[in-house]
Amino acid sequence: MSSLLPSDSPSNLAEYSVSELSGSIKRTVEQAFDQVRVRGEISGYRGPHSSGHAYFSLKDERARIDAVIWKGTMGRLRFRPEEGMEVIATGKVTTFPGSSKYQIVIEQMEPAGQGALMALLEERKRRFAAEGLFDPARKRPIPHMPGVIGVVTSPTGAVIRDILHRIRDRFPVHVVVWPVRVQGEGSGTEVAAAIEGFNALLQGGPVARPDVLIVARGGGSLEDLWGFNDEAVVRAAAASTIPLISAVGHETDWTLIDHAADLRAPTPTGAAEMAVPVRADLEAALAGLSARLSAAVRRQAEQRRQALRAVARALPSLDQLLALPRRRLDEATARLGRGLEMNTGNKRRSFERAASDLRPERLAAAFSERRRRLSERMAVAARLVDRMVTTRRSRLLAASVALRGADDRLSGRIDRGRDRLDGLHARGARALAAGLAGRRAGLEAQARMLGSLSYRAVLKRGYALVRDAAGVPVPAAAGVGEGMAVSIEFTDGRVGATIGARQAGIEAAVDQAGDEAAPSPRRRGSRARPAGGPEQGSLF
Hints:
CATH superfamily of the domain at 120-277: Succinyl-CoA synthetase domains
Mean pLDDT: 81
Order of helices and strands: HEEEHEEHEHEHEHEHEHHHHHEEEH
Helix content: 40-55%
CATH topology of the domain at 120-277: Rossmann fold
Structural class: alpha/beta
Strand order of the largest sheet: 1-2-3-5-4
CATH architecture of the domain at 120-277: 3-Layer(aba) Sandwich
CATH class of the domain at 120-277: Alpha Beta
Shape: flat
Number of helices: 13
Low-confidence stretches: 1-7, 520-535
């Protein structure tokens, strides 16, 4: 307990709370490192949080520092951070008092040189190729004569004018332009949304669904074209159900969308030339095909005419074709008359044999035999019906007798059950009343026992209970000290008191007064006499 007491030689150092010390450290660090540029590799990056902020670390070979990019700064970055990317971050160092950590709040960030972007580009290219996004088998052919062309590009640049001019000169078709940003932060997201939007259009809807898409942009540096290397753009191009032509940059510029597209054009103008044919060439080709078709039709008709003439010469004359069938008809006509005569004779003989067997005596005998058999069967059926009716009547009488007996037995069982239920009800009522009386008597006995054991019964006999300031009872005089505040509980309430100086004479007087105030023994039933001593004074 002595260790909790203040030291005899206090220090002259200022005393800080934890919050004050953390705040002082935070201000010192922020003033000393207000603006710093740090080069390091991104580690632990998992994309923006649901709040829009991004939390990760920057590391090198020997150290690591936590970093955070607030939501507003994320929208201004020219590229999207990725795991393992080497960057140069500009910001200020601050501390986080809640966990005694320091971190850098990044305000600007850029890749660490052209080599870092190329390395990131190669890594993405390998990853997408491994997923099969660049597989040639996935690429679709470009339609030869599209009815509608969708163009994803900037609406204010020279690219869209070149594309429209080239399409108008070669083969005028309907062109739908989806305006996007083609450079800077967010350009990749807009290009991907445009590709997905064109694919979401319905055939025959208010906006015509394109037959082919052109994603176009003029030339520029690697940083300027970086939006077309975005993962969302590559996946949208690979997933497009509409054939897509990539025309980003000049002929020497390559981006990842070129590998995912169905066809790559060296320039935006070249994309327009690939999308539509030359109308004059089509007309010339159509005229040549029409002439060839007419000549082919004439040659085919002449060949068919000559073949028909050759077949006609080889066919026999009409008389030759009908001579043999005419002879067969004549022979069949001659045989038909003779066959009818023979058939008629056979039928007549059959009728005569049947008529010889149909005499009146035989018919009457047959009718008598049939009538006798019918009478016998009717007699047998009558006997069977009588026997069945007798059997059913006896069964019905037996069932009626059994039913009357069962009704009598059931009535007796019901009466006996009703008597038994009345007896059980009376016994239950008596048992419930007896149980409640026993429980009530036990409860009253316990209440009396509780009243006799309660300290309040002792207070009614003239005693008092002393408690300290915390409300804990004081069992002995050694537990109190001079000047100590106590409360004294009597049978009718509590009073406050302060302990004075301890005196041995007062304690003896109190003990003597208590002995005199004690009631003398008396016979049972006699009335108690009042104590003749003085009233009870202070306990101390």
